[in-house]
Amino acid sequence: MSSMPRLFVNSDLVAGNAFEFDEEQAKYLTRVMRLGVGDAARVFNGRDGEWRAEISAVAGRRAEMTPAEQLREQPAQARAPLTLLFAPVKKSETDFIVEKATELGAGFIQPVITERTQSRTVRLDRFEKIALEAAEQTERLDVPLLADALGLDAALEALPAGTVLIFCDEAGDEADAPWGGQSGRAEPMVQVLEGLKGQAAAILIGPEGGFSPAERGFLRAREGTHPVSLGPRILRAETAAVAAMTLWQAICGDWGN
Of 19, 38, 88, 198, which is the most buried if we count CB atoms within 10 A? Predict the structure, then answer.
């Protein structure tokens, strides 16, 4: 960890090749952090690793930096083989999901519109800013890809070939019992994940109120889908997303590295 500011940039990072910050980043460095010519920050772009760069010029609202030393190389596979599919909920809760998914290493984040999704409008620009800031703070060398909302069928069709779908299924099969009763419950996620190590995966989190019976039947019958339970309590959507990603990282992801 370093006390130097850390920023994501779009420019290529090559030793000695100066680049210009956008106005917002320049303001942050020169006015908020009070840095001047000769001071350093850490920068990354998701392609060239992380660099120590020095401010080489400041003019009004503009600032220029020059990469001086590569601190970390870009891993051969920077983007984790994990996708999060989630039904948007209220604004603050949806923001929370995007932030925590970034912190927990999602490589791709896809909002999904289901039959019971209540919030059907997403602000992709807002999500991108949240994810970028989370990546800067958590020492990631990349920023997750974010997509605009898709219907459930389209989102599943867009998954890369060979991706297993981890369907967080909180319901049972008893039509007249609350949340479907106990019959037909999915197996605990921990048990299911033990058989999925080494595979690219997508975690699917439903909306408040869960999936409709038709959606649940479709998902249960879909090839490559693994229904899982997150325990005996019904979790809020944002809690379920964090819990499921945490289990995946602990068992199948990079927490063992």
Answer: 88
